[in-house]
Amino acid sequence: TRIITGVYIIGHETLEIYSKKGFEPEHLAEIRKTIHGLTGMSIVEQDMSHVVIKNFVDPTRFPAIGLMRIIYMITSWMQEASIQALKENRKNLANEVIHMEKEVDRIYWLIILQLLLAAKDKSVEKKIGIESSQNIVGSRTVAKILEKIGDLAEDIAIQVITILDSDYPPDQSAIDDLEKMFKMIQKVYDESTKGFFSTNINMANDALENVLAISTEFTKVTNSVLTNFTNNLEKKNGRQDFQKIDTYLSLRTILWIFSQIAGYCGTISEITINRVLERPSNICKFEMQPPEHI
Fold first, then answer.
1. What's the rounded Cα separation, in Å, for the pair 117 and 103?
2. Distance of alpha carbon 63 from alpha carbon 10, whole angstroms
3. For an engineered disulfide with 35, which of 9, 41, 162, 206 has Cβ 3.0 to 4.6 Å away?
4. What own/partner pairs with CB < 8 Å and gap ≥ 24 does 66-70 have?
């Protein structure tokens, strides 16, 4: 899996895999599963000891920022759908979130392919909308962050399913606390990503300020959920019943995931600010100093 993926993002169009002893069924299954996660890859020839894979996609057809926007929209929906699934007791919606994570990975690997090609060939930069070679590293970092947020959104859905399968659902007040935290995360995710896409330093700065506010709110909400949990523990034969602990741990995990997403949003905003400052503007001007002043 790792070799096929690595060859894909390096930009090779044809990959031939050989086996001296012949492929086992699990080897072929792994090959098929891997290429299904890579846009444009298809098996064109196969026998018991030889598989040929070709990449039929032209990565320069798609602007990199456009693909990142798609990941942002998918991952934003994944987070919102997970909270909605919890509120409305819709396990099927949470399962759909888990399926969407695979689409995020497909788009992510295509972006990485684009950026590596652009690093090797300047003509690719313009085709995929990269303004400067300086932006390749930052764009790759943001793409990775968006992919990680997709992973975290999947983790939220998994925790929601755990809660919905439990015999001890959380109280409404705990769900309200969770939703309050989610709305803050949603706002900062919108600000940081849209600020990056439009190279808007004001939006990036606002996002960073809100990340700081979220860290304070995270502690409050976590304590509120813990207090709610301990207050609702039942006593049986003089001992507290801890059967609800799984529900609490899932709620606590979702809150922790929110804090991780907020941290990633802060990194996106920092990259945006650095990108703005690479060129002279009304915010920051550059002047060459004469040698005697240096």
1. 22
2. 18
3. 41
4. 66/129, 67/107, 67/110, 67/111, 67/114, 68/111, 68/139, 68/142, 68/143, 68/146, 68/193, 68/197, 69/197, 70/107
Buried b (16+ CB within 10 A) or exposed e, 248-278: bebbeebbebbbebbebbbbbbbbbbebbee
Across the strands, what pairs with 239? Answer: 236
Question: How far does Cα 222 stand from its chain's mean position?
Answer: 23
The DSSP secondary-structure symbol of 13 reads S
Q: Tens digit of pLDDT for each residue in 276-285? A: 988 887 888 8
For the CA atoms of the chain, what is the radius of gyration? 24
> Up-side HSE of residue 138: CA atoms within 13 Å toward CB?
22
Match 């693909």 to its residue by tokens: 67
Contact between residue 107 and residue 71 where contact means Cβ atoms under 8 Å apart: yes
Q: What percent of the chain has pLDDT over 70?
A: 95
The residue-averaged pLDDT of 242-256 equals: 83
- pLDDT-based confidence at 271, cuts 50/70/90? very high
Beta-carbon contacts of 36 under 8 Å, excluding residues fewer than 6 positions away, are none
Q: What was the pLDDT predicted at 222?
A: 83
